[in-house]
């Protein structure tokens, strides 16, 4: 972006705002994401009162409002589809002009975030749960042991690293990403507190109540001793069938371990979900060839999790609760 003409309307407004705040051109260029010369030219042009040279825009304010309405009707359309609808509406503009106008409005093409689909009853229960826990402090949340199961695959899907390549190198073996129909995978049970993570448990079979209780006996109890010593703690798990089975509830009663009531379909409220996301991001550059190598990679990455990361995630619980209340029980950004 070497030219002032390349700056979008949003970038120009950001430059003007940061300039008024007294920021230097170097800092402004870094925050806006353009060259320092572009910032300098824009500021000098504004100071001299010069208008942008070149051909007059072929679209009116009314045309731009129509474009914004089309985009907001379905945000998953591509530029070609949006351009076609805009043309049908009576606007004479090229596909590239359509793309530029969308950028000027602040629209950017991004990978959408995924949030759980909640029905009305689930939202109401989440809201009631959040209101009940809104006065819990970070110290109280530090007494909770969070847990979850997660499947790790050798192929990490579309969220993996991108590749730099030149024209004609699309089929270059060094530029290809391996893909298999049924990738090898391993299922892992994990736990954490605000102090550290617990030991990993690789599950060899489908998790039913009996298998889950063996995990609790041989991995959860040692993890509790490691994380809490002899202090009291509260155990958290979701409402999976193996977790909510009567025999599992009896197991917890027999061992005198209190359970944290948990709303259904609420991974965004569980900090261990974010921790597992961190693990997957750290594993992006790994290239395991089989299940055993995948297990070794998971173990090595899990060992790199620091107490500071655990503490930061558990400390976010009051903010998660506040966000759930503000969203009236709907899924949150977490």
TrEMBL record:
<dbReference type="Pfam" id="PF13358">
    <property type="entry name" value="DDE_3"/>
</dbReference>
<dbReference type="InterPro" id="IPR009057">
    <property type="entry name" value="Homeodomain-like_sf"/>
</dbReference>
<protein>
    <recommendedName>
        <fullName>Transposase</fullName>
    </recommendedName>
</protein>
<dbReference type="Pfam" id="PF01498">
    <property type="entry name" value="HTH_Tnp_Tc3_2"/>
</dbReference>
<dbReference type="InterPro" id="IPR038717">
    <property type="entry name" value="Tc1-like_DDE_dom"/>
</dbReference>
<dbReference type="GO" id="GO:0015074">
    <property type="term" value="P:DNA integration"/>
</dbReference>
<dbReference type="GO" id="GO:0006313">
    <property type="term" value="P:DNA transposition"/>
</dbReference>
<dbReference type="InterPro" id="IPR036388">
    <property type="entry name" value="WH-like_DNA-bd_sf"/>
</dbReference>
<dbReference type="InterPro" id="IPR036397">
    <property type="entry name" value="RNaseH_sf"/>
</dbReference>
<feature type="domain" description="Transposase Tc1-like">
    <location>
        <begin position="64"/>
        <end position="132"/>
    </location>
</feature>
<dbReference type="InterPro" id="IPR002492">
    <property type="entry name" value="Transposase_Tc1-like"/>
</dbReference>
<dbReference type="InterPro" id="IPR052338">
    <property type="entry name" value="Transposase_5"/>
</dbReference>
<dbReference type="InterPro" id="IPR047655">
    <property type="entry name" value="Transpos_IS630-like"/>
</dbReference>
<feature type="domain" description="Tc1-like transposase DDE">
    <location>
        <begin position="144"/>
        <end position="295"/>
    </location>
</feature>
<dbReference type="GO" id="GO:0003677">
    <property type="term" value="F:DNA binding"/>
</dbReference>
